[in-house]
């Protein structure tokens, strides 16, 4: 959708109508893109040169990056502040359980689990997208709770005690962990790259318009409902993949924790701290959240208090998030999504 | 660029590389977490020390310190002619199964644990055992009904496969029946049993198992209905029990739900002659909420100072261990003291019977073959209902008023399953 | 574009908000290329009429037809793509987006312009509305006159067959109004029909060839501007409300008394 607009400037209009050079790319963006490719390649090699002790924390980090980016797709671009994404985290995990119980290889079944979450989100979207703002947020949360109860009550889903991932005992432990690591990396990269591509596309512009003013967006011809639905369902799809990867990593899942609202709180924390509505923000937010988690986890129950305090401090001193406050005044953009105009009549 | 052949060749090469990476070659070159140097054996211990399940683990720190102080542990383990220092790393699950899985992985990857011991409820033991089985790390679990530990970790519970690295000791539904039915026999009733079982893993397991046990012994079964955990209104259940004239009561609920239900039962005049509860009132702290209403409620006990057992580490008796805990903490003894202590006895037994502690397969095999007597009595892993499971024999106890130091204490009233334990008092009807 | 039948037909449309009737069995026809002015006191139902036409409001009864097709159940986005472009009385820019992006959305979605075509349309519309110099500015930082122009630009970028203008001249200075009238007249050259709500009657009468007076959700008068302004019913309506200046002056109807809520 951005064909021909990706590299350099595009001239639009004639001299009589006003000349514009529309810029969607920059030297910084090229450097950032190249750097990202190198970084991803380096990360892909971690199982070969760093080993499992490096893989484990990175799996967590990758899942956080993916979750933050996916939540940002909804909240930052389409303006849907959901508090119920844990529904899809759980859907992905339990779909993986179902697939693996039927004898499918758990790693091959991860895309299936993601698809299951995406499919589930479609009928759900018709119910929750009728609502807006706080009502929407509460409805999504309630829905996640309903799903949690349904899983708890479902026979053969292990009840509140949870279930182990079947079908992994055939794997060598090192290979299993490396596969989990690669899946986590793939899901993170696809989430960030996918959200980036969407944000740069026509869909991204529509979503930002819908976020800003749905009535005006409709007047401009934007299919408001469809735009929101895509954002919601794609986010659910990706979140389902994360749920499946997390399950493959922990090997154990339980409704009480996978459907817990703390996941939504974490997603919101990362996005708001990092900078909502940007590509860089959620990544930075995930890094900060991960670092805080690692640094503060030794403080036991104080961990949450300290995390909250850090969150409040950052929102007070950097209301647009760390990236927003850092980059916007200086005009920085590693992953540009807008249209910049240079040259006039 | 010379024609379309180049892209195709490149593509094939790419696919080949991908297959190579994912295939057998990957197995060989993927790095592990690094080999451990030194002459140290690391024992990981995982239990719910904070959060809703903390009651189970309130004595764990004490037991770990006590074990660290035994000669067997301070002097190190002699394995294959070499003496290894022993380090115990304790992890808290915060009562969260996901965290349990996470700390188990930390123990394996960061602390290089050679064995992982875990205790208290499936929410703790199952994630830990799952990780250990997948990672190939020996693991011993306890304080979890063996059925919940064994079947719910199976890919196909109808066609279960024994585990290689994970073992456990405790008991199961059969022992609950074997413990409760003799107590029922000793109170003259109309043989009608009221069952309060929630719609959760434990509740449903009991609901499935009880009717058969009851029928065999000639009792009539009245199911109060599968309620949701956290329910606060039990009137309809209670009136059902009343109209069916139930004189015996049994259950397997969450502790707060039982407190609510038992108070409402007292108010609404449901006074069964004998209450034998499972899963609740296991620990002294649980009795505080109900006060006098706990009097003469019966339950099962798998460990206590009344057990005629001694430590395989240093010969300390069960009574001494309980008293040491009471004087160190000022709190009343609890059953998990013995269970957690035995985990460390088992670890010591297993390591000292192999050639090298790094041979995980050998350690796991030693666990499966273990048969010893320690502070939990005889634990025989070779003759359980399934491989790797050792069954304990609980006794029937009643909560009776204490001798002044603590308001209520457990007194043995039935030893049908474990005659070696001395009876402390007569069985008294809960409601005369 | 070339159709012989009516472009817009409202057929006995009724819309109520509780006790307030904003459209009362209202019927109206606009033909391709028409330029219709709409006047009426505050609360007459003018903006609501636009909402009913654009799809932002669902009528309680009656039908809306566009080019002969019943569009009553279509939402605003679909009607926009079918050729209805509207401005909002209180401007509603996408504040976090640049002026260029604001118009680009409309060109892409409402106007169906893809890729470079979208850029070209946007550039042309921005030039035509005098916003070229502000193209890179976030719309949230625009003042009221420019916000009004942006409303117009966005509506034009959807390439409408029917352009609904809701008090685009309200709050503007005389030279600004003159400029705006020029833009609207230039747009009309493409053959689109314009319906224009305005309290600034001088601006209206210079452009429209037909004037409608609304009050209480009803058409009070409909005809040539001079006739409508002179009609006793219209005078009565404006005298009756007293909320907007008296009847008289050039057009006989008040100037700039609009309920323009936007204060940038
Ligand atoms: N969404 C709504 N809910 C309730 N009442 C409404 C709504 N929209 C408009 N109204 C009421 O309907 C009446 C007509 O409003 P409308 O905006 O159509 O008037 P108008 O003719 O455009 O007035 P103005 O000249 O002030 O712009 C007013 O009394 C207004 O308060
Ligand atoms: Mg109005």
Q: Would you mind describing this structure in some detail?
A:
With 345 residues, chain A is mostly helical. Chain A has one domain (53-344): ABC transporter involved in vitamin B12 uptake, BtuC (Orthogonal Bundle), CATH 1.10.3470. Chain A has helices at 27-44, 46-49, 52-77, 86-101, 110-128, 133-153, 173-200, 202-212, 214-219, 224-250, 255-258, 262-274, 280-296, 302-317, 321-327; strands at residues 9-12, 20-23, 163-164, 252-253, 340-342. In chain A, the strands form 2 sheets. Chain A has a 3-stranded antiparallel β-sheet, with no helix packed on it. In chain A, helix 4 runs parallel beside helix 6 (133-153). The radius of gyration of chain A is 21 Å and the shape is globular. Chain B is 38% helix and 19% strand. The radius of gyration of chain B is 25 Å and the shape is globular. Chain C has 264 residues and is α/β, with parallel strands linked by helices. Chain C has a domain at 93-159. Helices cover 34% and strands 22% of the residues of chain C. The longest helix of chain C is centred in the last third of the chain and has 15 residues, at 174-188. The termini of chain C are far apart. Classes of the chains: A mainly alpha (345), B alpha/beta (432), C alpha/beta (264). Chains in contact: A-B, A-C. The structure holds adenosine-5'-triphosphate and magnesium ion (MG). Residues 46-47, 89, 259 of chain C line the site of magnesium ion. Adenosine-5'-triphosphate binds at residues 17, 20, 22, 40, 42-48, 89, 258-259 of chain C.
Compact description:
Chain A has 345 residues and is mainly α.
Label the overall shape of chain B.
globular
- Major beta sheet of chain C, specifics? 6 strands, mixed
* Secondary structure tally: strands of chain B: 16
**How many separate helices of chain C?**
9
* Average pLDDT metric of chain B: 89
* CATH architectural grouping of the largest domain in chain B: 3-Layer(aba) Sandwich
Described by strand count, sense and barrel closure, the largest sheet of chain B is: 7 strands, mixed
Provide the helix percentage of chain B.
25-40%
CATH class designation of the largest domain in chain B: Alpha Beta
Overall, the morphology of chain C is globular
Class of secondary structure makeup of chain B: alpha/beta
> What is the terminal separation of chain C in angstroms?
37 Å
Report low-confidence residues of chain C grouped into runs of 5 or more: 242-264
- What value does the Rg of chain C take, in angstroms? 18 Å
| Classification by helices and strands of chain C | alpha/beta
- Integer tally of domains of chain B: 2
Task: Give the spatial strand order of the biggest sheet of chain B.
Answer: 2-3-1-4-5-6-14
Number of strands of chain C: 10
Rg value of chain B: 25 Å
Figure out the total of helices of chain B. 15
**Small molecules bound:** adenosine-5'-triphosphate, magnesium ion
Family (chain B): Belongs to the leucine-binding protein family.
Domain Leucine-binding protein (chain B): 41-384
Organism (chain B): Sphaerisporangium corydalis
Keywords (chain B): Signal
């Amino acid at each position: 959708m951005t064909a021909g607009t990706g590299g350099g400037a595009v001239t639009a209009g004639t001299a009589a109508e006003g000349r514009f050079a529309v810029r969607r790319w920059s030297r910084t963006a090229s450097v950032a893109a190249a750097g990202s490719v190198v970084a991803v390649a380096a990360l892909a090699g971690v199982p070969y040169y760093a080993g499992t002790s490096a893989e484990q924390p990175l799996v967590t980090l990758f899942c956080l990056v993916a979750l933050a980016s996916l939540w940002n797709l909804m909240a930052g671009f389409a303006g849907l502040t959901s508090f119920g994404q844990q529904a899809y985290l759980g859907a992905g995990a339990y779909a993986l359980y179902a697939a693996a119980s039927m004898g499918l290889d758990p790693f091959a079944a991860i895309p299936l689990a993601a698809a299951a979450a995406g499919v589930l989100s479609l009928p759900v979207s018709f119910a929750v997208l009728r609502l807006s703002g706080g009502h929407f947020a509460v409805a999504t949360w309630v829905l996640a709770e309903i799903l949690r109860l349904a899983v708890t009550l479902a026979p053969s889903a292990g009840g509140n005690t949870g279930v182990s991932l079947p079908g992994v005992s055939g794997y060598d432990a090192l290979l299993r962990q490396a596969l989990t690591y690669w899946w986590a990396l793939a899901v993170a990269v696809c989430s960030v790259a996918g959200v980036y591509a969407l944000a740069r596309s026509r869909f991204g512009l529509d979503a930002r318009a819908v976020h800003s003013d749905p009535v005006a967006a409709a007047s401009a011809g934007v299919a408001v409902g469809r735009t929101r639905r895509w954002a919601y369902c794609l986010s659910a799809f990706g979140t389902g993949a994360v749920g499946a990867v997390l399950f493959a990593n922990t090997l154990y899942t339980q409704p009480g924790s996978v459907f817990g609202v703390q996941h939504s709180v974490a997603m919101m924390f990362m996005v708001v701290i990092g900078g909502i509505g940007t590509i860089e923000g959620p990544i930075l937010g995930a890094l900060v959240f991960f670092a805080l988690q690692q640094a503060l986890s030794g403080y036991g129950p104080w961990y949450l208090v300290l995390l909250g305090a850090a969150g409040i401090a950052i929102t007070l001193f950097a209301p647009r998030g760390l990236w927003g406050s850092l980059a916007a005044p200086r005009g920085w953009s590693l992953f540009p999504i807008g249209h910049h105009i240079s040259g006039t009549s | 660029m010379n024609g379309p052949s180049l892209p195709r060749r490149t593509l094939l090469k790419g696919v080949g590389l991908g297959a190579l990476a994912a295939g057998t070659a990957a197995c060989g070159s993927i790095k592990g977490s690094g080999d451990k140097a030194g002459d140290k054996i690391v024992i990981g211990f995982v239990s719910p020390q904070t959060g809703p399940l903390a009651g189970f683990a309130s004595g764990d720190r004490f037991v770990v310190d006590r074990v660290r102080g035994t000669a067997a542990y301070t002097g190190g383990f002699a394995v294959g002619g070499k003496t290894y220092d022993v380090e115990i790393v304790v992890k808290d699950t915060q009562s969260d199964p996901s965290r349990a899985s996470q700390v188990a992985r930390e123990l394996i990857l960061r602390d290089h644990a050679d064995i992982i011991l875990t205790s208290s409820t499936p929410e703790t033991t199952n994630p830990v055992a799952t990780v250990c089985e997948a990672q190939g790390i020996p693991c011993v679990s306890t304080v979890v009904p063996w059925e919940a530990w064994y079947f719910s970790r199976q890919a196909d519970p109808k066609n279960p496969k024994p585990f290689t690295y994970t073992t456990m000791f405790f008991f199961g539904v059969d022992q609950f029946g074997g413990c409760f039915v003799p107590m029922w026999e000793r109170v003259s009733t109309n043989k009608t049993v009221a069952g309060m079982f929630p719609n959760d893993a434990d509740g449903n397991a009991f609901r499935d198992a009880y009717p058969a046990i009851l029928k065999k012994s000639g009792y009539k079964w009245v199911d109060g209905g599968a309620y949701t955990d956290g329910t606060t209104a039990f009137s309809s259940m209670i009136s059902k029990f009343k109209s069916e004239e139930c004189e015996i009561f049994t259950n397997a609920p969450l502790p707060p739900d039982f407190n609510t239900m038992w108070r409402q039962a007292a108010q609404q005049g449901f006074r069964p002659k004998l209450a034998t509860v499972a899963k609740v009132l296991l620990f002294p702290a649980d009795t505080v909420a109900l006060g006098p209403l706990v009097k003469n409620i019966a339950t099962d006990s798998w460990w206590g100072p009344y057990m005629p057992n001694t430590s395989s580490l240093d010969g300390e008796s069960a009574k001494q261990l309980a008293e040491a805990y009471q004087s160190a903490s000022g709190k009343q003894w609890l059953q998990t003291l013995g269970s957690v202590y035995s985990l460390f006895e088992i670890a010591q037994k297993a390591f000292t019977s192999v050639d090298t502690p790094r041979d995980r397969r050998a350690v796991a095999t030693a666990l499966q073959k273990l048969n010893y007597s320690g502070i939990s009595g005889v634990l025989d892993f070779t003759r359980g209902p399934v491989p790797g499971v050792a069954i304990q024999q609980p006794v029937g106890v009643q909560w009776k008023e204490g001798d002044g130091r603590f308001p209520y204490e457990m007194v043995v009233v039935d030893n049908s399953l474990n005659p070696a334990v001395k009876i402390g008092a007569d069985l008294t009807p809960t409601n005369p | 574009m070339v159709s012989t039948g009516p472009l817009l037909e409202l057929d006995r449309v009724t819309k109520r908000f509780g006790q307030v009737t904003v459209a009362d069995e209202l019927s109206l026809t606009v033909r391709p290329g028409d330029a219709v002015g709409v006047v009426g006191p505050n609360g007459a139902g003018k903006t609501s009429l636009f909402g009913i036409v654009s799809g932002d409001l669902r009528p309680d009864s009656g039908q809306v037809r566009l080019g002969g097709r019943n569009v009553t159940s279509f939402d605003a986005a679909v009607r926009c793509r079918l050729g209805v472009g509207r401005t909002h009385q209180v401007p509603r820019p996408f504040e976090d987006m640049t002026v260029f992006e604001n118009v680009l959305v409309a060109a892409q979605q409402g106007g169906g312009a893809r890729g470079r075509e979208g850029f070209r349309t946007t550039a042309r519309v921005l030039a035509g509305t005098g916003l070229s110099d502000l193209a890179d500015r976030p719309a949230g930082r625009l003042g009221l006159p420019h916000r009004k122009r942006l409303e117009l630009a966005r509506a034009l970028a959807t390439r409408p067959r029917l352009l609904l203008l809701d008090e685009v001249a309200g709050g503007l200075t005389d030279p600004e109004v003159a400029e705006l009238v020029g833009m609207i007249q230039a747009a009309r050259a493409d053959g689109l029909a314009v319906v224009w709500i305005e309290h600034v009657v001088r601006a209206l009468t210079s452009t429209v060839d037909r004037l409608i007076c609304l009050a209480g959700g009803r058409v009070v008068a409909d005809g040539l501007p001079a006739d409508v302004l002179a009609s006793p019913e219209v005078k009565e309506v404006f005298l009756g409300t007293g909320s907007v200046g008296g009847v008289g002056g050039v057009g006989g109807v008040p100037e700039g008394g609009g309920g323009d809520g936007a204060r940038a």
